Amino acid sequence: MKKMGKAIALSTGFLLASSASFSPIPWNLSVTEAASAVKIVPTVYQTTANLNMRTGAGTKYKVIMTIPKGKTVTATERLGDWYKVSYDYTVKGRKYTRTGWVSGDYLKKLTSQSSAERAVKMAVAAPTIYQTTANLNMRTGAGTKYKVIMTIPKGKTVTATERLGDWYKVSYDYTVKGRKYTRTGWVSGDYLKKASSQSPVSASQTAIGNTVRSVAIAKTVYQTTANVNLRTGAGTKYKKIVTIPKGRTVTATEKLGSWYKVSYEYSEKGRKYTKIGWISGSYLREYDQYKNISGTYLFTKTAAVLYSVPKSKGNAVKLAVGNGLYSTRMVINSIGQTWYEVAFNGKKLYVSVNDVTKVTPQRFSQTKYEVKEDAVLYGAPGSAHSRLVTIPKGTVISSSLHINGWYEVTYKGKKGYIYSSELEKYVPAPPSSSSPSNPLNPASAQPNDSSSTITEREMVDRTFAVRVNLNFRKQPDVNADRLAIIPKGTIVVPTHQTSNGWYKIKYDNQIGYVSGDPDLITEVKTGAPLDGRRDGYQFIDLRTQAPVEAWQINKYIQSYVQSTGKQSVLANQGQTFINVGRKYGVNPLYLAAHAIHESAFGTSRLALTKYNLFGYGAYDDAPFVAAYRFSSIEESIEYVARKIKSSYLNPSHPFFKGPILGFRTNTLEKIRVDESSEGMNFYYASDPYWGQTIARHMANMLPYDSNYYKSAPVDKSVPPAPSIPPGSDYFPTGIVAVANSPIPLYDQKGGKQIAVLAKGATFAPREKTNDYWFRLEYNGRQYWTNAIKLYDYARYITVKNLGSVTADTLNVRSTPIIPKIPEENVISKLKMGQYVSLKLKSDGTIEQQGSWYQIVLDDGRTGWVSSTWIIRELK
Q1: First CA to last CA across the chain, in angstroms?
Q2: What per-residue confidence (pLDDT) applies to 195?
Q3: Which residue, 645, 640, 633, is CA-closest to 606?
Q4: Residue 319: beta bridge partners?
Q5: Is 183 helix (H, G, I), strand (E, B) or coil?
Q6: Which residues contact residue 514 at a Cβ distance below 8 angstroms, ignoring those fewer than 6 apart?
Q7: Is 63 exposed, middle or buried (0-12, 13-18, 19+ CB in 10 A)?
Q8: Are the CB atoms for 727 and 631 separated by under 8 Å?
Q9: Cβ atoms of 338 and 317 closer than 8 Å
Q10: 3-state SS record for 631-684
Q11: At residue 306, what are phi and psi to the nearest 5 degrees?
Q12: What are phi and psi of 851, to 5 degrees?
């Protein structure tokens, strides 16, 4: 399959193979933990038995620990009968907290809670300032039994951030001998009153009653304009943390009045540090990072807006789709957006990378063209650019450069661009009747001349896409009568090719000829119906409901299972497709056909081991490791149905190319022909026949009824895009990986960067999450990173000894042979999809004998497995 630089769905369909692609969620977007988990009011439960805490909501997830019977846990989320809980416990005097999922079958709700430990801490609506009404003890916990930290004098102010019953968690700022201190602890609310006056509220602050709180802002990079102090709070009265030198960069995430909460990274004696605090906005300016690039041609792929600054603000110029620009500079602006610096009509402007596509210019030998009608020469490729001059009809011009349908030409000393539809290849006039025709130049012969040397050769099974509005002529000659103009994007099937390079076709019930110029017409592979008919499942609105019943879907799947003898996770799931289709307004027959095609009727390895029916998240480079792991068949179907409805079937989404399966048209080099592609197949699948194949599965389950779909109601509702579902792949111990480039390391998933793994360093991968974070171990310490991009993993890492099982069950043998009694030397068995640690020799290569790998089991024993049933992952 073609590497697409985005997630693709691996297809192992019964009818035809496909490689369907989804666009993954961008790396820099935050996502919620689960698409279907429900937040609940924090609730305290007691375990009714020794209870396993797991990494996900289901028994297939890894056990984190066992919680003893009678212990209390606090639940914050629910997914079905499973609860996400936190559990506090003590080992050898040290306190720990673990968070994970437990079965609700072994929990009972505590109806009365006699101690503060069983209460639930509730955050106050906003940080609130109170004044003490007496000398007040600050304690380590919410109750008089806790140790006194200090006594706060009467009349002092404190800031509360949490409440537990009648107790408040507060911070108190005070000064001793000129030094400022801040203490945090718990105080009784009986001795607090709201402060009568608060700090002034600016337009940038949010006021609720007497409270003042900061406002979250988009993550923005600033540069300091002078040496400036980083402080513990938003004001000069707060303690100085560090002085940041002029010209350094900081990242802001909150604002309070004219102050910004920022993080500042710096190095000292070879060690890296990160400080977080508040800084006055008077000493900050937004920081845009510029980078010179090699000259790049860009074309607007949507209606684009050019701005005077690399942000969506300032003076703007609107530019229609299909206009060319040229850039030698890129900008990453202060909020992380990437822009190109371009010139337009003499002005320096900026365009977002999301609005343009790169185009490679094509150079060729100097070729003559004739202008068909009076045509405008533009200063740059695109009709929005300045008009230089009008070139009269019949003018012969030359070009050796072609850019996205535009030719670079020079006319009367002015260099500019003219669109290909305005030109035809120049053919010299035929010799006069007194001159003998040249047998070596068939193009010079008149088609109707009996002495013409033009011949025709039959063509079979070759399909072409018209790239411009193309003249359809009576004879294979530019001077022949024009029968019609064939619109750009039309698919044609020639019957003959002439010796002077024209194609003979039937169009609009007429026989004629079109030029074979590859700039005008391109040979393609297409899923478009060659007879022009659009009556079938390939062209229904997928937002309708099919009159299908569960037994019809189940029967189709069961017939495949019976004929192949394979196990399928889709058995008896017909009603699930119908329920989900109704819930999101997506055709359930389509959903079933899509899953059947991508998962080989539910028998693929991804379907059987990860409940991944659509190959979602799988990349060409790492199809198994990268693929999402779902907790159930229902979650997989729900996720994809909601994803499809909110994107490919949403008219407001960039992926929308019509609410139909449609088709894709590719050149023989597998480049999409946009004007001849439509529907989901346009973006979703690189296989041009994907839409046809899904439609065929649909028809096999329920014959197509054109009358039904003529009046079937369309559900135009658009649900929110789903969050990436929770799920992880866990790797066995003993896996060895090498960094192929520097990899930033974080203290936790989504946390702060604390180190960099150097190129060439060896580490142990431990876990990969669905949102592509890796947990790894290096020098005995655990880190997280999201810098390993699995669509091109070799740029980042090489894993020496990770394997995965492809057989239903794989025997692990004590010796690398199969004895006469097959079970005689079997010491263990592995399941499909299970990761295994391949044993390494001292030189770092795999321990192997013939077609056998030696592996290390979880309990430390070694054994041998057939390499036939092992895939080396990320090698």
Answers
A1: 18
A2: 73
A3: 633
A4: 304
A5: strand
A6: 466, 470, 471, 472, 473, 486, 492, 502, 503, 505, 520, 521
A7: exposed
A8: yes
A9: no
A10: CCHHHHHHHHHHHHHHCCCCCCCCCCCCCCCCECEEECCCCECHHHCECHHHCC
A11: -100, 135
A12: -100, 25
Residue from 508, 504, 478 nearest 490 by CA? 508
Put simply, whether the predicted model's pTM sits higher than 0.85 gets the answer: no
d(C-alpha 679, C-alpha 716), whole Å:
16
pLDDT tens across 239-286, in order?
999 999 988 999 998 888 778 999 998 888 878 888 999 998 888 888
User: Could you read off the pLDDT of 531-560 as tens digits, one per residue?
Assistant: 888 999 999 999 999 999 999 999 999 999
> Are 183 and 150 within 8 A, CB to CB?
yes
User: What is the average pLDDT score of the chain?
Assistant: 84
CA 517-370-411 angle, 5° bins? 125
Q: Is 770 helix (H, G, I), strand (E, B) or coil?
A: coil
Query: The sheet that has 470-473: what strands, in order across it?
Result: 456-458, 496-498, 502-507, 510-515, 470-473, 482-486
Contact assessment for residue 514 and residue 472, using Cβ atoms and an 8 Å cutoff: yes
DSSP lists the bridge partners of residue 230 as: 242
What does the angle CA 660 – CA 661 – CA 664 come to, to the nearest 5 degrees? 115
Give the list of residues 6+ apart from residue 321 with CB closer than 8 angstroms, or none.
Answer: 300, 301, 302, 303, 304
Cα separation, 847 vs 852, in Å, equals 9
Task: Residue count of the chain, please give it.
Answer: 875
Amino acid, single-letter form, for residue 285: R
Q: Contact, 675 vs 657, CB < 8 A? A: no
